[in-house]
Write a structure and sequence with these properties.
Largest sheet: 4 strands, antiparallel
Strand content: 35-45%
CATH topology: GTP Cyclohydrolase I, domain 2
CATH architecture: 2-Layer Sandwich
Order of helices and strands: EEEEHHEE
Number of strands: 6
Radius of gyration: 16 Å
């Protein structure tokens, strides 16, 4: 059992590849370092995706997120890098990473990055009475 951060993202076969469905995860303990001051930045990351052939294995995601703890990165860069790494590992139909960074200097920052597979369109929302 690994107790160290890791940059490898593991996957498993999508159990329902013929169906569009959404997987949502909230990661409330994300940390990285401010590249200017070296002080820690804290955020809640939200990751949601519509899988194609693969799904993310959660322990590998946890260790991957942990790998950012001592990395200096601007909010915009780290959010987009995480999305790119997840898209490279999964090739999903759709993916979104939202980084909700804690207040720093009186400013709360949210960064949202998205990926959409060419030609994929979301189903229309269902409106129930």
């Amino acid at each position: 059992m690994s107790t160290q951060p890791a940059t490898t993202l593991e996957t498993f076969a999508n159990p329902e590849p013929g169906r569009d469905y959404t997987i949502r995860m909230s990661i409330p303990e994300f940390t990285c370092l401010c590249p200017r001051t070296g002080q820690p930045d804290f955020a809640t990351l939200e990751f949601e995706y519509v899988p194609e052939a693969l799904c993310i294995e959660l322990k590998s995601l946890k260790l991957y997120i942990w790998s950012y703890r001592n990395v200096g990165a601007f909010h915009e860069a780290v959010t987009n890098r995480i999305l790119s790494d997840l898209v490279n590992a999964l090739s999903p139909r759709f993916a979104r990473v939202s980084g909700h960074f804690n207040v720093r200097g009186g400013i709360h920052t949210t960064v949202v990055a998205e990926h959409r597979e060419s030609g994929w369109q979301a189903a229309s929302p269902v409106a129930l009475p």
